[in-house]
Design a protein that fits this description.
The structure holds 2 protein chains of 2 kinds.
Chain A (H helix, E strand, L loop, with lengths): L1 H12 L2 H19 L5 H12 L4 H26 L11 H46 L4 H18 L4 H14 L3 E2 L6 E2 L13 H18 L18 H7 L2 H16 L4 H16 L11 H25 L5 H13 L5 H6 L1 H24 L1 H7 L4 H20 L2 H19 L5 H23 L11 H33 L1
Antiparallel strand pairs in A: 1-2
Helix pairs in contact in A: 1-15, 2-3, 2-4, 2-15, 3-4, 3-8, 3-13, 3-17, 4-5, 4-12, 4-13, 4-15, 5-9, 5-10, 5-12, 5-15, 6-7, 6-19, 6-20, 7-19, 8-17, 8-18, 10-11, 10-12, 11-12, 12-13, 13-19, 17-18
Chain B lengths: L1 E3 H24 L1 H5 L12 H26 L8 E3 L4 H20 L1 H15 L5 H22 L16
Antiparallel strand pairs in B: 1-2
Helix pairs in contact in B: 1-3, 4-5, 5-6
Chain lengths: 501, 166
């Protein structure tokens, strides 16, 4: 089954358009990753409107490559400026910047890119080996399991998001409500359309995502900063020798990639936690003479291999179950739905060529990352000198025209603007934004399967406790919420006793 | 004058209350008129949003309780104040962008976009007129080329029907 899927996928993958878009995606990802304040999620969000008109595998290759490049790009500014381009690169600071200060900036960047690419390839192998198995297991799922799975995905994201559990759950619930706008699939009645024909099919997910993330991020960027600053960075040119330097830490590389892939596969955990965890583990296993925190090559290998391996891990539940592990995966699911295919077991059974194509583009994007990243580093370093005062208007224009291009609809622009305002207010009040988008994505899956479950049930909601997998998921959901409440109370008490002391 | 995170929290709580109220109002009026607010899981399209709204309402009440308790507690790091005047730039950015979206159809892309870009660049602190006008026009043309010539998307022409035949 796997071999067939890969062979069929090869056909989809080996087209000039897919290959070119994957390389372009990696380059764009590295640029947005390197620029502090943007990052892989923003890169995927900004390019989403363009991807939806492309052939499925080419579009997914483009978007996944942006995620791959973006996860690595943040290390460039972390190493050269001591400013992580993305939170994913925060742990790379510990050893990347000191190594650059020792006059080995090129080595530090080269190791970061090599470790990212090799970690990403490891994540790709995990994806290829585990996603079909998980999809096969999930093919026996019925509506109760799917409904509970959607709920688990949403609760997990809310639990681990920044801010309080309650706030995460509230934005998630808001997302679920937003997903109900439009024509009801069962009764064909209209819900919350207010007589507007533009609302009959619901709100366009791209307009929501662009508004919530990009517009609110730009408003945050212009707030109280000198936007005309032009950082002084020296030109660096790493060589392929850094691949050898990275491979000298092969044990660390394998261990950190495993941590990254495992954390990525867990809903809500994501790259930032995996990089810090793998750094801590690598440091614990290191010898004192390696000098972790003072420019150790192993420190960069640990964090960078983990953060790119996380991307592969995160794609496992995304492709096999249709449950996004984090916000970028949710955007990818949104793209898949627009492109006309549904992630989950049906993807592997009915469209193995798409699943295989996605595996191929993911592996190729990591190979491209190694080549393009090392060869084009001087360009990414030059990008760091771009002033925010030019960048912000360009990003806003991209948001507007990209969203307009979806359906040539001015209405979509106002939806984007409205969600931009919602995003600004939610950010200001400390509400996480990712659960809202994941709520919008998972909303139809949850509602349709919940209603189907109740239709086939003779005992109402007890159907969710009648089936073993569904029961386990109910228990997991309860444990997640109870655990998060316990953790919050413990943290509050610790904080209070600290203040008192 | 300052604004605190708690002010934003109250505003968000208010928005959530309005959303919950809207769900129940629609379920009681529009959905009843359509005949989709009663019956079993197949016919009742109002039950699911009402359930979610009910849960959301409960969480809003809890959050309001937390906010009220926190008001009585001594100020902590979360209640750092932001000067309202520092919010001028983000507010202006949103305003310029909203005006741009409003003008895009009547004025057309080729008139509205360079003006919006120039206004945003000036807002971001660029003071040299040439450093504003030249990039604004060039960026606008580059985007138009990418969308119209490469992606074959017709951008709004406005009252002058301005579209470049690339």
């Amino acid at each position: 089954m796997l071999a067939d899927s890969l062979l069929l996928g090869l056909d989809q993958f080996l087209t000039p358009l897919t290959l070119m878009l994957t390389i372009v995606g990696v380059i764009f990802g590295l640029v947005v990753g390197a620029l502090p304040g943007l990052g892989p999620l923003m890169g995927v969000v900004l390019m989403l409107p363009f991807a939806v008109d492309m052939p499925p595998v080419s579009a997914m290759g483009f978007l996944i490559a942006i995620g791959v490049g973006g996860s690595c790009g943040g290390s460039i500014s972390a190493i050269l400026l001591r400013i992580p381009g993305t939170p994913l690169a925060a742990a790379t600071l510990f050893d990347g910047y000191p190594l650059a200060q020792k006059g080995r900036a090129a080595d530090a960047i080269g190791i970061a890119i090599s470790a990212s690419a090799l970690g990403g390839l490891f994540g790709g192998m995990v994806l290829i080996l585990t996603a079909p198995l998980l999809a096969d297991f999930a093919s026996n799922f019925a509506p109760p399991e799917y409904a509970m799975l959607a709920l688990t995905g949403l609760i997990a994201i809310a639990v681990v998001s920044d801010g309080s559990l309650l706030k995460g759950l509230m934005t998630g619930a808001l997302g679920l409500l937003i997903a109900t706008i439009g024509t009801d699939e069962f009764s064909t009645g209209f819900r919350f359309t207010f007589g507007q024909y533009e609302l009959l099919n619901g709100l366009h997910i791209v307009a929501i995502v662009v508004g919530i993330f990009a517009i609110s991020e730009m408003a945050q960027q212009v707030h109280g900063r000198n936007l005309n600053e032009k950082p002084t960075v020296k030109a660096v040119r790493p060589g392929f020798r850094t691949v050898i330097l990275t491979l000298r830490h092969w044990k660390n590389l394998l261990r950190s990639s495993t941590i990254g892939a495992a954390f990525g596969a867990l809903p809500g955990v994501g790259g930032t936690i995996s990089t810090f965890a793998s750094y801590a583990v690598a440091k614990a296993f290191s010898k004192p003479e390696e000098g972790y925190g003072e420019g150790a090559e192993g420190g960069i290998v640990a964090t960078e291999s983990a953060n790119n391996s996380t991307v592969g891990g995160a794609l496992v539940p995304t492709l096999a179950l249709g449950i996004p592990g984090e916000a970028a995966s949710a955007v990818l699911i949104g793209a898949m739905l627009i492109l006309g295919f549904f992630p989950g077991p049906a993807l592997f059974a009915d469209q193995p060529e798409i699943a295989g194509g996605i595996f191929m583009v993911y592996l190729f994007s990591n190979v491209s990352l190694l080549l393009v990243g090392i060869l084009m580093t001087p360009i990414f370093v030059w990008v760091l000198r771009l002033k925010k005062s030019y960048l912000i208007p360009v990003v806003l224009l991209l948001c507007a025209i990209g969203t307009f291009a979806l359906q040539s609809s001015v209405f979509d622009l106002w939806v984007m603007m409205g969600f931009g305002l919602v995003g600004i207010v939610l950010r200001a009040a400390g509400y996480p934004l990712a659960p809202l988008v994941i709520g919008v994505i998972l909303g139809p899956l949850l509602e349709n399967n919940l209603r189907r479950s109740l239709l086939i049930s003779r005992e109402g909601y007890w159907i969710f406790l009648d089936r073993p997998v569904s029961t386990i998921l109910v228990v997991v959901n309860v444990l997640l919420i109870v655990g998060a409440i316990y953790w919050t109370i413990r943290q509050r008490r610790a904080k209070r006793s600290q203040t008192a002391a | 004058m300052t604004i605190k995170k708690t002010h934003a929290e109250w505003l968000v709580a208010l928005i959530f209350v309005a959303v919950v109220a809207l769900v129940f109002q629609q379920a009681a009026t529009d959905m009843v008129e359509q005949g989709i607010a009663s019956g079993g899981p197949y016919d009742n399209a109002a039950a699911y949003p009402k359930t979610i709204a009910l849960i959301l309402g409960g969480m809003v009440a809890l959050q309001l309780g937390v906010q009220i308790i926190r008001r009585r507690a001594p100020a902590d790091a979360d209640t750092r104040a932001v000067q309202i005047r520092t919010l001028g730039r983000p507010a202006l950015m949103v305003l310029i962008f909203a005006v741009y979206l409003g003008c895009l159809s009547p004025l057309g892309y080729h008139i509205a976009t360079p003006i919006m870009l120039a206004a945003l660049m000036a807002l971001c602190g660029i003071r040299n007129a040439i450093a504003i006008v030249v990039p604004a026009v060039l960026i606008s043309l580059a985007f138009a080329f990418a969308f119209e010539a490469l992606l074959k998307i017709v951008l709004p022409g406005g009252f002058l029907h301005l579209n470049i035949a690339w």
